[in-house]
Amino acid sequence: MKIDYIKKIYSIYKKLHLFYWNKTFNGKYNVGDLFSLLIVRYLSPYKVTYTPRYTPFPLKLCAVGSLINDSILMTGGIFWGTGMLVPKVKKHIAPAIFTAVRGPLTRRSLLAAGYKCPDIYGDPALLLPQIYQPTNKVKKYKFGIICHWRHIDFIRCEGDVKFINILRAEEEAWSFIDEICECEIILSSSLHGIIIANAYNIPAKQIVFEGFPLEGDPLKKFHDYYASVHMPVQNPLYLKKGETINNNTKIEHDKTIDLNIDLKKLYEAFPF
After folding, report:
1. Residue 244: is its pLDDT beyond 70?
2. What's the pLDDT tens digit per position in 18-62?
3. Strand order in 47-50's β-sheet?
């Protein structure tokens, strides 16, 4: 089924079915997944509604997140800027259309499984500066700390250090960007903490909490992102649960950000 025919279907029903990870924690979402909804809602002329992962092709769009796996591909879908956590997938009978993926590691795995996938890369969160600009860009903090939701209480902040909570209600999503832009450097165990900081030209460094690995192949998604923007893979900052970050913490990090990626291609690859 060609994408032009699918677009015609959507133009008739004027509703876009988006799958994103919508688990809540006391009514709040993981902000990276929430931005999938907000970005697609901004770009699409249609009403955007949540749809479950098992929704059949072509009534399922996937965007931000490491969503590509066999359980998703069993029912197919349309994928734009999506990534993988698992090292490989199988070729399934259900159709799947990839208009762009997060990075070349995701594309390599899809090609190895027999899928067609263009060499158009980028996490859709890189487009956020085209959608939203903070009104205040004055730096107030040396470090901003963003923890993956699994690590939400793993670190203590003192002095000129801001803890930026990744769990947000929908109306709080944009303030996440405001808080990032108040910091000189972002330290994050969440990939989207790094991506969003880099999108706003703020250096960011990955945190790894010793003994508390993320699910799947977490390094793959970070490396996938770095490859998409032609940045060298960083050495993570290894911390123990309960450590404190303060003004005097010595951290090696990049001083400038140089994202080498064609975001126009990513934008134009949005299927709806």
Report:
1. yes
2. 999 998 899 999 999 999 999 999 999 999 999 998 888 777 999
3. 47-50, 15-19, 61-62, 77-82, 96-101
Name the pLDDT band for 235 (thresholds 50, 70, 90). Answer: confident
Q: Which pLDDT belongs to residue 217?
A: 63
Three-state SS at 63: coil
Spatial CA neighbour of 224 closest among 199, 253, 194: 194
What is the 3-state composition of the chain as percent helix, strand, coil, each rounded to the nearest 5?
30, 25, 45
- Whether the ω angle into residue 58 lies within 30 degrees of 0, i.e. cis, is yes
- Cβ contacts of 96 within 8 Å, gap of 6 or more: 57, 73, 76, 77, 78, 79, 115
DSSP state of 125: G
Residue 52 and residue 39: Cα distance in Å, rounded? 18
- Euclidean distance between CA atoms 180 and 178, whole angstroms: 6
At 42, which helix (H) or strand (E)?
Answer: helix 31-43
Q: Hey, which residues does 183 pair with through a beta bridge?
A: 141
Is the CA virtual torsion 231, 235, 241, 246 positive or negative?
negative
- Which pLDDT belongs to residue 12? 79
Record the tokens describing residue 64, joined without a space: 């931000």
Where exactly are the structural domains of the chain?
A: 3-127+264-268, 128-245
Q: Is the pLDDT of residue 156 over 90?
A: no
Share the mean pLDDT of the chain: 91
Determine phi and psi for 115, rounding to 5 degrees: -85, 155
Q: CA end-to-end span of the chain, whole Å?
A: 15
CB within 8 A of 254, min separation 6: which ones? 203, 205, 234
